[in-house]
Description:
The complex is a heterodimer of chains A (about 280) and B (about 90).
Chain A (H helix, E strand, L loop, with lengths): L8 E7 L1 E3 L21 E3 L1 H17 L3 E10 L4 H10 L3 E6 L11 H16 L6 E5 L10 H9 L3 E10 L9 E8 L2 E8 L2 E5 L11 H7 L4 E5 L33 H10 L4
Parallel strand pairs in A: 1-4, 1-6, 4-5, 5-11, 6-10, 7-10
Antiparallel strand pairs in A: 2-3, 7-8, 8-9
Helix pairs in contact in A: 2-5, 3-4
Chain B lengths: L8 H15 L9 H11 L6 H34 L4
Helix pairs in contact in B: 1-2, 1-3
Amino acid sequence: xxxxxxxxxxxxxxxxxxxxxxxxxxxxxxxxxxxxxxxxxxxxxxxxxxxxxxxxxxxxxxxxxxxxxxxxxxxxxxxxxxxxxxxxxxxxxxxxxxxxxxxxxxxxxxxxxxxxxxxxxxxxxxxxxxxxxxxxxxxxxxxxxxxxxxxxxxxxxxxxxxxxxxxxxxxxxxxxxxxxxxxxxxxxxxxxxxxxxxxxxxxxxxxxxxxxxxxxxxxxxxxxxxxxxxxxxxxxxxxxxxxxxxxxxxxxxxxxxxxxxxxxxxxxxxxxxxx
Amino acid sequence: xxxxxxxxxxxxxxxxxxxxxxxxxxxxxxxxxxxxxxxxxxxxxxxxxxxxxxxxxxxxxxxxxxxxxxxxxxxxxxxxxxxxxxx
Lengths: 275, 87
């Protein structure tokens, strides 16, 4: 166990492994899930922004940030995205392993929040977590709920959809006040909150870096812990409550047609009942 | 790449590896990033003069930066189109 560090901050960054943003998603044959076999997977882009923000905090405040821990809940392959985050500059990783899931039986935001709540408790055994930075939503199910639910479960303040994070002290310590600019409908909102709190990132917070080759190699040696749902006492508690009935593609766009002259155009429009 | 034993060879190899890694994710599948990369390096393999090699290395660094910028811009634009209503 480490001695308690009174004045320093530990950052936790939950990340998700999703289908790559550039891939065209297709429904699977069973009609209740999406095709994931042979599809490129990568880190949720909003979570990349979260990792980047954590790393930038350390670059700015140096030793005031003791540790950046990334955590992912998912199948064993989620270790890949944790390695990517470690290559970007995080210090250690935690993977909460669950069996390979499909969209028919996914972990829901509430389940994930409960798991993360337990992870925060476990992490506190060695060093307390003071700041959680996470993506505002994952690009696969677009729920945008996990951060908010986790804040509720931990009873922490939340600053969601952040586009700027500033600490009011020169060196942030436990209990420091942060000022967060939030993207809201039709403008910006500014909130002030004390550590510990939860920050969810919006697109404009920063531009994530590209991990360099030496850092990718170094990341392979960084420590990674593994928990199962049993370790966290959540074998039942994280079960999904919703059932997916159907997944289908949006209706195909109807092709247009060329008209020879104005008269034809008018007659066609009349036919369609537009004029 | 500078000949074996040249003091700039490791730097050139490092740059080649980095670019090769980047090239694997090039968004346009019709653009032969890696074959182009290979032929460019081969074209300058005979250089031994430090000044000339450094010049070429700088061009390579520039390409690396531009490619990284291209990737992040593409990602940003895609997400903006998807998630920002007035984009």
